[in-house]
Amino acid sequence: MMTAKKTPDAYFKNADKWREELLSLRKLLLSTGLTEELKWGSPFYTADGKHIVGLTAFKNHFCLWFPQGALLKDTQKVLINAQEGVTRAQRQWRMHDAKDIKPALVKTYVKEAVSLAKAGKEIKPKPKGVLVLPEELKTALSKNKRAGAAFEKLTPGKQREYAEYIAEAKQAATKERRLEKILPMIVAGAGLNDKYKNC
């Protein structure tokens, strides 16, 4: 995984995996007339200041990510929601080797994303109301004093992610499994989705 760099050039230069594939996608995205910037530690491409598509690498794949990807037609069914139940608008296009890069298709998706952005189309985040903790999470935090104390120190956003993660589970067994997974993360002061934010 790559560490955050201060410029797109540095990002590509220091890519320890997928460098050639990332450079191919970079060239392709720049050929569409988008402006390259560095946002959230990775190259990002904008049109008239509007966010269109990001480019990043993970351990097992590299991907394009569209902040408003849920609005795209996705005729080829290449887009996925990497954080089901958490992310409303963002979609990823994961690739595993150079053969997965389809220049004409990438340009088609980018062109549609630009058109939507210019038309002002976007899925806005849900307004955040008062944080309500599911009973199961409340009970677990009261039983586990370390987790309870650590939870209080988390940002409101991280608290909300954990609350929603438990609330969305339909079955008691699923809630239990999720609680077992998140309690050590809470004690460590980590957010549920930190691994997606620090790519």
UniProtKB/TrEMBL annotation:
UniProt domain YdhG-like: residue ranges: 18-114
Domain of life: Bacteria
InterPro entries, per database record: YdeI_bac, YdhG-like
Signal peptide: none
Protein name: YdeI family protein
Organism: Hyphococcus aureus
